[in-house]
Specification:
The protein is mostly beta strands and about 80 residues long. The radius of gyration is 16 Å and the shape is elongated.
C-alpha cells in the first residue's frame, strides 16, 4: 500500500422545495444524504479506487430539480 494516499469524499443532499421540514424523532430534518461518493488517490493523485452509494430517501422522496440535474444522480 502506498504510504501516502488520499480519500476524497463527497456527499449529495436533498431537501424540500419548501420550508416545510420533516420531523423525525423530535428532530427537524432540513435535508438528508442521498448519495455518498469517494475516490482514493495515490501519492501522485492517480485514481486507485472509487466508491458510490445511493441512499434511499427516508424523509424527502421527491428529488429537487437541482439534484436531478447532477449527472448520474437518481431520478426517482
Amino acid at each position: 500500500m502506498d504510504p501516502k494516499s488520499y480519500i476524497v469524499m463527497d456527499l449529495e443532499f436533498n431537501s424540500p422545495n419548501t420550508r416545510s421540514f420533516v420531523t423525525k424523532n423530535g428532530i427537524s430534518l432540513k435535508s438528508e444524504i442521498v448519495e455518498i461518493g469517494a475516490v482514493k488517490l495515490d501519492s501522485d493523485l492517480n485514481t486507485v479506487d472509487t466508491f458510490r452509494k445511493y441512499i434511499r430517501p427516508d424523509a424527502y422522496f421527491k428529488m429537487r430539480d437541482e439534484i436531478v440535474k447532477i449527472p448520474r444522480s437518481p431520478r426517482k
